[in-house]
Amino acid sequence: MLVFTGGIGLVQHIGVLTSGGDAPGMNACVRAVVRMAIYRKVKISGIMRGYAGLLAGEMKPMDLGSVGDIIHRGGTLLRTARCKEFYEPEGQERGARRLQEAGIDGLVVIGGDGSFRGAQALMRHGISVIGIPGTIDNDIPGTDYTIGFDTAVNTVLDAINKIRDTATSHDRTNVIEVMGRRAGHIALLSGLAGGAESILVPEVPFDVDVVCARLMRGHNRGKLHSIILVAEGVGSAVELGKQIEQKTGLETRVTILGHIQRGGSPTATDRIWASQMGSRAVDLLLAGKSGLMLGVRRGELVEVALDKAMTERHGLDQELYQLAGILSI
Amino acid sequence: MLVFTGGIGLVQHIGVLTSGGDAPGMNACVRAVVRMAIYRKVKISGIMRGYAGLLAGEMKPMDLGSVGDIIHRGGTLLRTARCKEFYEPEGQERGARRLQEAGIDGLVVIGGDGSFRGAQALMRHGISVIGIPGTIDNDIPGTDYTIGFDTAVNTVLDAINKIRDTATSHDRTNVIEVMGRRAGHIALLSGLAGGAESILVPEVPFDVDVVCARLMRGHNRGKLHSIILVAEGVGSAVELGKQIEQKTGLETRVTILGHIQRGGSPTATDRIWASQMGSRAVDLLLAGKSGLMLGVRRGELVEVALDKAMTERHGLDQELYQLAGILSI
Amino acid sequence: MLVFTGGIGLVQHIGVLTSGGDAPGMNACVRAVVRMAIYRKVKISGIMRGYAGLLAGEMKPMDLGSVGDIIHRGGTLLRTARCKEFYEPEGQERGARRLQEAGIDGLVVIGGDGSFRGAQALMRHGISVIGIPGTIDNDIPGTDYTIGFDTAVNTVLDAINKIRDTATSHDRTNVIEVMGRRAGHIALLSGLAGGAESILVPEVPFDVDVVCARLMRGHNRGKLHSIILVAEGVGSAVELGKQIEQKTGLETRVTILGHIQRGGSPTATDRIWASQMGSRAVDLLLAGKSGLMLGVRRGELVEVALDKAMTERHGLDQELYQLAGILSI
Amino acid sequence: MLVFTGGIGLVQHIGVLTSGGDAPGMNACVRAVVRMAIYRKVKISGIMRGYAGLLAGEMKPMDLGSVGDIIHRGGTLLRTARCKEFYEPEGQERGARRLQEAGIDGLVVIGGDGSFRGAQALMRHGISVIGIPGTIDNDIPGTDYTIGFDTAVNTVLDAINKIRDTATSHDRTNVIEVMGRRAGHIALLSGLAGGAESILVPEVPFDVDVVCARLMRGHNRGKLHSIILVAEGVGSAVELGKQIEQKTGLETRVTILGHIQRGGSPTATDRIWASQMGSRAVDLLLAGKSGLMLGVRRGELVEVALDKAMTERHGLDQELYQLAGILSI
């Protein structure tokens, strides 16, 4: 485990970047990093477009005003991009050199686990790094929560509300595909909160016949509509919709929410955790800490070793999954 | 043209039904029909599930409270359904008999042009009928506006706002498929209002190479994202997204909004027109009128002969289409 | 009436400013002015903070990118301010000189009737001017619609929806104060669309005893809640709430929506009219027109002489007012 | 401490009521109680209008369909009311008798601490009771979270977003009064998440001169607007606005959000905790438990003795309060 601990004042100049997929709340986090750094009287620079911008030397000093009026905006003002070059040792070395040339000795990386691997590489070249989990999928090991997750779940919920209106009027089955390639967290929480009849996630094998039997049971009991939430990792919602229609004879419609789920003004929860994590990251760097990711565990802000964040899976809440099944009978 | 004009008091008992696809604002319209009928001291009954419910005899008397607390809800409390049986003369005759047995001599039909054809058939059996255009697609001849259209456009707009957040962060092209099998009204208005780079509608032929050239021009000028609105009548958005990605090399994402567009609490515009149309329909029936559809022309409520509403196409606003092109350069 | 008509190409350099209270959709309008000017290959400058900024010389050339990503934002990127100095002839003369020094010979003024008086003064100094009505109150003579009105009405509607939830649970009367010092348009349309039991506006005298009698009638019939919309021009909502509580004994709560009504992402309607008006204003200036305000009449874009826009009142729609009363029984 | 523990199956018939101020998520909680009871094959009845309805004998058996389509609605379908009679021993005894007559031996009370005092009284008459904290104020001792709080904070946040639009355009100070008579939780969280310049809460004494000095500092630095969040327990926002305007000379506007904060479709967080608490309450009763309140501590569902919930204050998060101050410099 790589955790360096030095004296206060070790870090003179902090850089901050967002990397991987963007998530609502990243702006609130960048704002907190910048303002806390200024409050602590340490230099702060923003690095554009993640590691791609780092390699291209796209950096600029940030002042209080540079993060004014962004706390409520989706996306990230620092933008983000993929950077294959940075997967290679030469790219990583060049990135570290770029930072050193700019005098940046501490880095806050807001992103997913791929981004943290890059951060660890920089650490090996002498840069202090703190990771902050930012992705709507909530699939980062070592933390119960990632920035953007709460907004994404509420965005899906809003879509379910709308679809419910029309489904009720028509006696229809609706299949809604939501994000989550590896993890079903968005599907589970929005499905439970939205009262979905079935929730299909990568973590739990499913049988389409069981889904259909459940549908028919509700239908025969007089239910006016049914909503099935499908995480994209499970497979094609369009295909599933066709199967259901064939097997049950119930009119079935498919919606693919896509990138709507990444946008929108962040919820209070996302802004507040983002603000706490951003400001804590600055304080950790100033306390000489490095190699840590901030996370939320049992409702509290915690520090996790970055390499642990790379390995331990954050599994689906099985109790919630069962509860969703019981309550949507 | 079938327009009967009789004396006041001709109609003793009004029925109201919603038919075809549901649309936000239908509840506000039903409320207006019911309350105006009660205000005019005429009997009023709700018929469930459109013509299907009519044939099945699913009717119930409505009082003031029966339409309380529904003005703000999407969908239709009377529900709606397709009814193949009612396409046939026997079905239509049976429907008319059902009404006569219940003593209903005036009918308000809220729905699309298919629904109005059914209404005309009932008229031939002596029922007075008034049609009210309700469909999110705004594709009914004889009126510039249909109930639900304004809500649907604003729902799409909200989706565009969200996608814009993430598109800006990523330098991406987003293709958004919206409703509109025969007509591009939703795509045009939401695309213009959302600042979409390209709007593809069934009414205007397009060349994917021109779309791509436009994309590249914006991209080369430094645009951080592009949004392409596609009406479903134009073809598969998924297919189009693939083509664009291949031809331009720009990362492209596809969203299919689907039935989200039918739901949601209706906008003020939809509720107000719905209220005006519903109450006017009652007064027309009480004035002995029949065979008319209510519509909006040049911002005012108008009466159109139902058979005209069957034939005259309501074309795309070409000026707006060109304006959208100019403003999104 | 001051309407100069010259040859095409008369105007070489257009300025645009927003003045008076801001309104959602102003950004969409500024965007349309700027982009249409660029499309027509004429120079375009933005003037900050209305006439105050004009006197202070706060102007800057606008390019395509300067109005990117603003169509969906509330407020006005050009900002706005009051300017007492500009009420005086010397101020107006100095303003005209500022424009002439900058080479600006055509001006688009987006704002209320006070702003148009300033525009007329500039016209007398040889500047071509086109006015665009922008204010949430919809109280500008000569047009049925002003930019921002549709958004404000929908914002109030959203508040009514929320209050309805809790009012129904509690058997309560809610008094909601909305904007409208001189005019009750916001109160009327949101009240009708929101199903308010009573709507109090400056245009129609009211008797608090009649309001209370109506409340009690609904209450005795079993209504679970009542909502009373009050335009601020009518008097203190807090005071009214107290009176109602005393006279009826019904628990009464007061909400003052205040400046929430000025904000929010503009609706489709506001963005589309704003876009049409902004682009038309440019074309009018380029056609040598001046002294005109754009407006909406019977659902169509019209040109109105500015001095007419100063005098003719745009009255409350009495038919809608009566309809609201009938439907909320 | 009153905690009875008996054998499984002790409780044969569960009643559920909502009491005190309503809160978004109460419906999701009632749904969970009803459906879990049915799943566990125990009888379940809904009691209308809290203790008032209990005394009046307003109860009805609930089935699966009775809580269909309510998870997304604000308010409470069981309604709520104040009941002075139930404060007295005779009233409480009568309430217990009503339950016993109906065969109800277990009761789930969703509400605030006042409601729990009533529940304790019923317990003394042999009814098993479980309390669930439901109030937007989040001021119930023994739990970090109450149902409705997350929705209320997000509703205030949405209002701040809207006000920010117009404040930025105008260079204005906005004072927003939010709920919280005894506690500043809503003000603190929405103020932190909304980037408010100052947050005034009952728990922290404030000096209006310090607030003004802070405002002027921001203003002089070029801030275009300032937002001050005020919990109602602090005093009149209208009065405060006047003082600020006098002392700073800055244009100041006041908004009183009022009962908007109680309404709206509940957020995912509120629906999920509500679902978990509701279903757990049933299981506790069936396990022979009584005299407990469910709560959330460190992100997990916990059981707290009801009498503890009456006494221990849930204080303001001082760290968050300071963070808000630092980040809004």
From TrEMBL, chains A, B, C, D:
Where is the protein localized?
Cytoplasm
Identify the EC number(s).
2.7.1.11
Q: Which Gene3D superfamilies match?
A: 3.40.50.450, Phosphofructokinase domain
> Which reaction(s) does its UniProt entry say it catalyses?
beta-D-fructose 6-phosphate + ATP = beta-D-fructose 1,6-bisphosphate + ADP + H(+)
Q: Which cofactor does it need?
A: Mg(2+)
List of catalytic residues? 137 (proton acceptor)
Q: Where does ATP bind?
A: 21, 82-83, 112-115
Q: Please give one Gene Ontology molecular function term for this protein.
A: 6-phosphofructokinase activity
**Which residues are noted in the entry as Mg(2+)-binding?**
113
Q: Which residues form the Phosphofructokinase domain?
A: 14-285
Keywords of this entry: Allosteric enzyme, ATP-binding, Cytoplasm, Glycolysis, Kinase, Magnesium, Metal-binding, Nucleotide-binding, Transferase
Q: Which family is this protein grouped under?
A: Belongs to the phosphofructokinase type A (PFKA) family. ATP-dependent PFK group I subfamily. Prokaryotic clade 'B1' sub-subfamily.
What is this protein identified as?
ATP-dependent 6-phosphofructokinase
**Taxonomy-wise, where does this protein's organism fall, top ranks first?**
Bacteria, Bacillati, Bacillota, Clostridia, Eubacteriales
